[in-house]
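WARN retry 2 of 3 for item q-0093 after timeout on previous attempt; input resubmitted unchanged.
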Amino acid sequence: MSKTSIVFSLMSAALFTLSGCATTQSLTPQQCQSSNWQEVGYADGIRGRSGAYFGQYTNQCASVGGASPNRIQWEQGRQQGLKTYCTELNAYKIGREGYDWQPVCPLEGIEKLEEAYSQGRYYYIRQRDLDYLRTPYPFAYGPAGRYGYSPFVYGW
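OK item q-0093 returned
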């Protein structure tokens, strides 16, 4: 195993670990007992989280005696948050920033949301590709050993 592949493996593992931290929210026992579940649901709705996400709160609060999240309040808040998430401007913004669109919006008007997301995603990919081509060595052609690929050097 080469040094480059080891570094790449370690960087991938670190990125995978950090992405897990960014998507899950750990609740303390105090939060399980005293959270305003409507506000928590609203925040989840703005992020485009599905109704299944509530199960994570249930699992986290299960170890706290007598504390259980309020599903009805959470869902009411989530529905309010989805009104902000399910707009054409937000769909475009999500696509433009390179994020995935979550299928949580009502079916009426979904075509407009998908079109806005597609336009944003198109510009995101176009900008990403232009940035890549503007790098000094876009196809890893550079001084031998510096960029990981040497076109005229044989590895014998």
